[in-house]
Write a structure and sequence with these properties.
Strand content of chain B: under 5%
Keywords (chain C): Coiled coil, Cytoplasm, Developmental protein, Nucleus, Phosphoprotein, Repressor, RNA-mediated gene silencing, Transcription, Transcription regulation, Translation regulation
Number of helices of chain A: 24
Subcellular location (chain C): Cytoplasm, P-body; Nucleus
Main location (chain C): cytoplasm
Largest interface: A-C, 51 and 29 residues
Oligomer: heterotrimer
Strand content of chain A: under 5%
Family (chain C): Belongs to the CNOT2/3/5 family.
Number of helices of chain B: 0
Number of strands of chain A: 0
Chains: A mainly alpha, B little secondary structure, C mainly alpha
Largest sheet of chain B: none
Radius of gyration of chain B: 15 Å
Distance between the termini of chain A: 73 Å
Radius of gyration of chain A: 28 Å
Protein name (chain C): CCR4-NOT transcription complex subunit 3
Number of strands of chain B: 0
């Protein structure tokens, strides 16, 4: 409903007044003049009710944003740094006011009022952005909003005791706001959004300084938002320039995470791979290549590496996603558990495919998330089953079990598309030395050895090879599996027709083999 | 196939963390020291 | 084997918005505090100029190899940044001291009472006019005639 008469003018006057104070005051220490200004706000009745405060912030935001649009749309200043710094002038003043109000609202030791005010302002700015985005469409400008969010974040992360006490709330509020503004909701803000969530100070606070990794789940959610948005564009190999830019930017962010926070990628790999398109090989390899910094990876290329002698393969990796909960419908889960327990009824196997197939349209026939969940769930059950018998996974202990029944059934019963997704789901487990990597590596090799048609062997080879012929990095588990496949004579790899189906393919295998030996 | 990730402007061999000087997803180079805020003693803030 | 999947209507709309945003990419200075002297505004320089930061140029070792003049330049023009911090550290390694009271750098360690030309032979000083006025009131004598 309508703003009370006079409020718009009052707000305009006050915000201009503040911008003036901010600019003319000595340095940036405008705290002294802040109390005077708050008094003025009081005099104008702005602080009387919560509703008025909300309106004041909404109107102030709009006034600042409009000022920026005027500057940015002015042909003479477009793309000049002069124009931009004029915008910064206005936006930074607004941000300073918000930061001071947040810092000084309520008792200094009481964080609740401060956090409430921050949430209110972030919500208002997000609301103005979304409205602006939907109204202006192609004419929408990201910069003003990006600047407000960034500068406010820097202000609220200054090393001050009152802010330290607030910090976790600030990070939570920001993550909520960024989730609301995720690219799927505001595609025209996607570049600024990626820069915001990968700003060095934001990454530092979210992933490094906040204790007990408390913000890792929040950050993981933001990356899932990004992958979900990118998925339909990455799904098709042809990337348009805007997509290439966003994709490259995403790779850079992932590289920083791989280098500085590999454990974060290790913990969240499953959720990420679940939303990254299956054909997006390099980005997925990048995530799967992460390994804990405390771990020394044995060189996969040294001859006669005894993987099953490595101590690490007895330990299961941390999986944050509740895999069992993602297997649906519940009836299917129940049937699965009973089959795993009793290895009956056989009809379960014959119905498996119908549970996974959701349409007949090529390319989107299967429920990929369900496939991923099924594969990992059955695999973890198999490892537990083998351990219960005080064995460890090997070519003999993984065979002749309900678990292997399911995998062999999927291998034989699914069509090419389904089998590709199934093998992908398995290959996603080939990471650093751990019990999953070891189990699925053995399973891959077992399925290859036991395959009754060469089509299956060829497809296993294709899935592994396509992950090897892209630029680095390559996950350790992938390398050792492929090396074992082409080295171990039991698999008769080089005798298969598909290895020699064309000179360039043969050459490719030889060059990979050469680099492996 | 794919990108050569070693030419995206990140020093992947750095023994130090990358994020403190990460120039952002669009930057070809890390931030320079003069780009990165630092909590210097207040007396140093002379201007 | 998955083949291509045509974009749905919703994704086509998103792509159009993304595409127009592509022509308003963020600028490096958007996410930095306003810098008085050297904002983060990359300029396109001739390709044969050095394009990437010099190796290790964000380390103290590197700064220690810079000339004193350069260090003072960095200290004065890049305040509040890691560069200023590194420059100050490097100056201190070369036995320069920053007197917080006088806001000045001295290469000698004793606290000067009088600064005149012979005191300053071979030493570089930087100070702030306003602060110097205050110091003067406190009886601080300063006879150095040329000061830039």
């Amino acid at each position: 409903y309508e703003d009370p008469p006079g409020l718009v003018d009052k707000t305009e006057y006050l915000i201009r007044e503040w911008i003036n104070i901010y600019t003319t005051h000595q340095g940036r220490d405008s705290t002294k003049s802040f109390s005077v200004f708050v008094h003025q706000m009081n005099l104008h009745g702005i602080l009387k009710t919560d509703d008025l405060i909300t309106r004041f912030f909404r109107l102030s935001t709009q006034i600042c944003i409009d000022t920026c649009y005027r500057i940015l749309c002015d042909k003479s200043t477009l793309n000049s740094t002069g124009g931009r710094s004029k915008c910064y002038h206005t936006l930074d003043a607004f941000v300073r006011l918000v930061a001071l109000l947040v810092k000084h609202s309520g008792e200094s030791s009481n964080t609740t009022t401060k956090v409430q005010l921050l949430n209110k302002v972030l919500g208002i700015v997000a609301g103005v952005l979304l409205q602006d985005h939907d109204n202006r469409l192609g004419e929408f400008h990201q910069m003003p909003y990006q600047r407000v969010f960034t500068m406010l974040f820097l202000e609220l992360n200054a090393p001050e005791p009152v802010l330290e006490a607030l910090n976790f709330h600030v990070l939570t509020a920001y993550c909520h706001t960024f989730h609301i503004l995720r690219p799927a909701k505001a595609a025209g803000f996607c570049y600024a959004w990626l820069e915001l969530i990968s700003h060095r100070v934001f990454i530092g606070r979210m992933l490094a300084t906040t204790p007990q990794q408390k913000c890792w789940p929040l950050y993981s959610q933001l990356l899932v938002d990004l992958f979900k948005y990118l998925a339909p564009f990455l799904r098709n190999a042809e990337l348009a320039k805007p997509v290439t830019m966003l994709y490259k930017g995403t790779l850079r962010v992932l590289l920083v995470l791989l280098h500085d926070f590999p454990e974060f990628l290790c913990d969240n790999y499953y959720g990420f791979c679940d939303v990254i398109p299956p054909n997006c090989i390099q980005m997925r390899n990048l995530i799967l290549s992460a390994f804990p910094r405390t771990m020394r990876l044995p060189d996969p290329f040294i001859p006669n590496l005894k993987v099953d002698m490595l101590p690490e393969i007895t330990y299961a990796p941390r999986i944050l996603t509740n895999i069992a909960a993602t297997i649906s419908p519940p009836q299917f889960k129940k049937d699965l558990d009973s089959y795993l327990k009793a290895r009956a009824p056989v009809t379960f196997l014959s119905e498996l495919r119908s549970n996974l197939q959701v349409s007949n349209e090529p390319g989107i026939r299967y429920n990929i998330s369900l496939m991923n969940a099924l594969v990992l769930y059955v695999g973890t059950q198999a490892i537990a089953y083998i351990k219960n018998k005080s064995h460890s996974p090997s070519m003999s202990t993984i065979a002749h079990s309900a678990h292997m029944d399911i995998f062999q059934n999927l291998t034989v019963d699914l069509d090419t598309e389904g089998r590709y997704l199934f093998f992908n789901a398995m290959a996603n487990q080939l990471r650093y030395p751990n019990s999953h990597t070891h189990y699925f590596s053995c399973t891959f090799l077992y399925l290859f050895a036991e395959a009754n048609t060469e089509v299956i062997q060829e497809q296993i080879t294709r899935v592994l090879l396509e992950r090897l012929i892209v630029n680095r990095p390559h996950p350790w588990g992938l390398l050792i599996t492929f090396i074992e496949l082409i080295k171990n004579p039991t698999y008769k790899f080089w005798q298969h027709q598909f290895v020699h189906c064309a000179p360039e393919i043969e050459k490719l295998f030889e060059s990979v083999a050469r680099s492996c030996f | 196939l794919g990108q050569d990730l070693t030419v995206l402007g990140l020093n992947l061999n750095s023994p130090e963390n990358l994020y403190p000087s990460f120039g952002g997803p669009w930057a070809d180079h890390p931030c320079r020291p003069q780009d990165v805020d630092f909590h210097v003693p207040p007396e140093y803030i002379i201007n | 084997p998955l083949g291509a999947v045509p974009l749905q209507k919703e994704h086509q709309t998103q792509f159009q918005l993304m595409e127009s945003a592509f022509y308003h990419m963020p600028h490096p200075s958007d996410t930095e505090r306003v810098r008085h002297y050297l904002p983060r505004n990359p300029y396109n320089t001739p390709p044969y100029y050095i394009q990437a930061p010099l190796f290790n140029s964000d380390t103290l070792e590197f700064y220690q190899r810079l000339g004193t003049e350069t260090l003072f330049f960095v200290f004065y023009y890049m305040e509040g940044t890691k560069a200023q911090y590194l420059a100050a550290k490097a100056l201190k390694k070369q036995s320069w001291r920053f007197h917080t009271k006088y806001m000045m750098w001295f290469q000698r360690h004793e606290e000067p009472k009088i600064i005149n030309e012979e005191y300053e032979q071979g030493t570089y000083i930087y100070f702030d006019y306003e602060k110097w006025g205050q110091r003067k009131k406190e009886g601080f004598t300063f006879e150095y005639k040329y000061l830039e």
